[in-house]
Design goal:
Strands 1, 2, 3, 4, 5, 6, 7 and 8 form an 8-stranded mixed sheet that branches. The chain is an alpha/beta fold. It contains 15 helices and 8 strands. Residues 306-317 have low confidence and may be disordered.
């Protein structure tokens, strides 16, 4: 009799180009035997995490023999390739870095500004379309017309993407179980204010999901979101932003970077704290058995050690995080850096960290 696989939800935090780490981590998980021991029941993401999550989910939908290929092909296409692209990338990253260091004056231009649009058009005219047109790049790697024809996909692992609705200030969740995944969903989750225009469709306008939840986590334990059959036994978070820093930021650049990290982490920890509270109530028999049965809940979910309540139980660590040596070299501008060197070192670190993580998790199953 075949051994039942453990049900896993994977949540992918956002962080621009730094989510090349996520791509490397997902690659390593599936190369290291994830599918032999685990069943992926849902995958969520915000911003760059939403991008990686969607590409992996789409590979599952297409029954690709090597699941990470589409995601890796996308990242290769998104990386600066020619000398002109490398020069453009270097100019953009270093200009923003100089402004944040106070070495250059800051000019606040809206992405809606005609001047901004003309400058962007002129400076990218000799570059590949796939390097400058994010929507076009997405459509090259995902057949959204096909997804629209197929409609909701409740038979697949649930894909949930996070965004923020600008006009109402509410959280937005795009769910593959209830609607066809559209290119606008990914664009909405990745729409960083001051860089991209708000993504408008169906009478609403969206900004980066960083404002809502980075990434969506508590949704994966709600049967109305993922289905009773997709409730996980563990949630693994591929985490981009570090928890702490070695000293109080004082330079404009360091303050900006730390602020971005805190924004990216706070919503995550708020969600995990809520799940911890529910776990402790479950462990203390605070709910009626018939209510739990109606929700498909049989046992608590495993949570990060950093949020454990030792008097109740020792929770396992489900974070896959960057190595400390890589974290020390990153700043806010590296989230915009699409150079080959930056992307490859982040991806390599993601592979390394995820390989160690899954070896440990598989060993714990025995």
């Amino acid at each position: 009799m075949a051994k039942q696989k453990r049900k896993i939800a994977i949540a992918c935090q956002g962080g621009g180009s730094q989510t090349a780490f996520t791509a490397g981590a997902l690659k390593a998980l599936f190369e290291a035997g994830f599918s032999e021991h685990y069943q992926l029941v849902s995958i969520t993401g915000t911003s760059g995490g939403a991008l990686c999550a969607t590409l992996m989910w789409y590979a599952i939908a297409k029954n690709d023999p090597y699941l990470p290929k589409r995601m890796l092909d996308f990242w290769a296409d998104n990386t600066a390739q020619s000398a002109a692209e490398s020069q453009f990338n270097h100019y953009v990253v270093e200009s923003i870095r100089a402004v944040n260091r106070g070495q250059m004056p800051q000019y606040n231009l809206s992405p809606y500004s005609p001047i901004m649009q003309i400058m962007a058009s002129m400076s990218t005219s000799n570059l590949r379309k796939n390097f400058t047109d994010f929507r076009g790049l997405l459509e090259q790697h995902i057949d959204f017309a096909e997804l629209q024809r197929l409609g909701p996909q409740p038979q697949l692992p649930a894909l949930i993407l996070g965004a923020a609705e600008v006009l109402t200030g509410t959280l937005a969740k795009f769910n593959s179980r209830t609607e066809a995944i559209r290119v606008e969903h990914i664009l909405a989750s990745c729409a960083v204010p001051n860089i991209f225009e708000a993504v408008e469709f169906d009478g609403k306008a969206y900004w980066d999901g960083l404002f809502s939840d980075n990434p969506p986590v508590d949704e994966v334990i709600k049967p109305e979101m993922v289905g009773l059959e997709n409730l996980p036994e563990e949630v693994w978070v591929i985490k981009i932003n570090p928890n702490g820093c070695s000293e109080v930021p004082k330079s404009p650049e360091a303050i900006s970077d730390r602020r971005n990290e805190l924004i990216g982490n706070m919503s995550l920890f708020q969600q995990l704290t809520s799940i911890r509270t529910l776990n402790e109530l479950l462990l203390k028999d605070a709910f009626k058995p018939e209510f739990l049965a109606s929700r498909g809940i049989q046992k608590p979910i495993l949570l990060p050690k950093c949020l454990s309540s030792d008097e109740v139980r020792p929770y396992h660590i489900p974070f896959i995080e960057m190595s400390e040596e890589i974290q020390k070299t990153l700043d806010y501008e590296s989230k915009l850096d699409r150079s080959k060197e930056n992307i490859e070192r982040l991806m390599a670190d993601g592979e390394k960290q995820a390989q160690a993580f899954i070896v440990e998790r598989i060993a714990a199953l025995k």
